[in-house]
Automatic annotation (TrEMBL):
This is Protein NipSnap 2. Its main location: mitochondrion. It comes from Opisthocomus hoazin (Hoatzin). It is found in: Mitochondrion matrix. Pfam families: NIPSNAP. Belongs to the NipSnap family.
């Protein structure tokens, strides 16, 4: 989608400079402390599994049979937030998002208990035979409010937008202003940034009734004064960008 900008040489020069010159104030605190939501101690894990094409149905069936039984037990301080198959994007892919109430101690407790759980051990072994590759990240929730009621069920498809900004603080400052333009359509679900795994990544989870609704909402943003300016300044900050359209499995709390 083309960026909206005024014509003229000064604007062009300013845009070119923004590609190479990044002015970031010195900080005396960790980026995670500046960007994370302070009201919660929750830690999130994002799992991405690339499944053998011929095994995707069996993989989904296995996850739907085993995961609820294990992780709905009260003595596991974690919860499945959502589980999806990628519809558009990399194919034959499963995406899982977990929340650990209590941060790293909760994560360690869950991992310790799962290592002693024979059913989970067998599940991992069977699941491993179906996978081509897998990766995960530990995430913190952004301090910027993405939604008025985050993590509530939706109807339809989901989009996971993954960006790698060159400078997290500068990008975060712009996004804090930009999200105001997208909060009146109720499509925002949650925002996260990576803490362990591939670093300097930001993930935004959105929900839409269908792809046409997504297109209509995105087009409407361009008619709001100020949106084009924010896009103009944030796009040069992003080094990598990936978008997935995902469909939830039956066991997914987010539907």
């Amino acid at each position: 989608r083309a960026l909206v900008s005024s014509a003229g040489r000064p604007r062009e020069d300013s845009w070119l400079k923004s590609l190479f010159v990044r002015k970031v104030d010195p900080r005396k605190d960790a980026h995670s402390n500046l960007l994370a939501k302070r009201e919660t101690s929750s830690l999130y894990k994002l799992q991405i599994h690339n499944v053998k094409p011929e095994c995707l149905d069996a993989y989904n069936k296995l996850c739907q049979e085993v995961l609820p039984k294990i992780h709905e037990e009260k003595h596991y301080p974690c919860a499945l937030v959502g589980t999806w198959n990628t519809w558009y994007g990399e194919q034959d892919q499963a995406v899982h998002l977990w929340r650990y109430e209590g941060g790293y101690p909760a994560l360690n407790e869950v991992m310790s208990k799962l290592r002693q759980n024979k059913e989970f051990t067998e599940f991992r072994k069977e699941r491993g035979n179906m996978l081509l590759s897998r990766k995960n990240q530990l995430l913190l929730e952004q301090s910027i409010s993405m939604a008025e009621n985050p993590m509530i069920p939706f109807e339809g498809s989901f989009k996971l937008r993954s960006n790698t900004p060159g400078t997290m603080i500068e990008w975060g400052n712009y996004w804090a202003r930009a999200i105001r333009f997208r909060q009146d359509s109720d499509e925002a679900v949650g925002g996260f940034f990576s803490q362990i795994g591939q670093l300097y990544m930001v993930h935004h989870l959105w929900a839409y009734k269908d792809l046409q609704t997504r297109e209509d909402i995105r087009n409407a943003a361009w008619h709001k004064p100020g949106w084009d300016e924010l896009v103009y300044y944030t796009v040069p900050l992003i080094q990598e960008m990936e978008s997935r359209i995902m469909i939830p499995l039956k066991i997914s709390p987010l539907q």
